[in-house]
Amino acid sequence: MQNRLFHLAWLGEELPTIAAQRDGGWIYRQIAREAAAVLAVATQYVSENELARVFMDARGTLSAESPEEQSVDAVRAAWLDTDAVTSSPSSVPEQRTRAHAMRVDGRR
User: Fold this and answer.
1) Do residues 84 and 59 touch, judged by C-beta distance below 8 A?
2) CA 61 to CA 80: how far, in whole Å?
3) What are the boundaries of each domain within the chain?
């Protein structure tokens, strides 16, 4: 995939020069082919990555029937974990305040 991306970048750099030639139309077909090949490989990597992430989820959210539902369940579980952490009392001690309230101008 990396080689295809480099080739696609080279085609992009050479596009103005080659397209200006009389028979330079081939570069557009070549760019379309390379882009389609990169898209196919990247799509497969995305699918495999999402499935791996879902199946490695230790919270047991694998009850959904499709990979898309499993992914949604994993995101929902992570969101609930985040809500639990942010809504729990902070372990940071509160700052001590003076016994007498101060006015904005600093007087008591």
Assistant:
1) no
2) 12
3) 1-42, 56-86
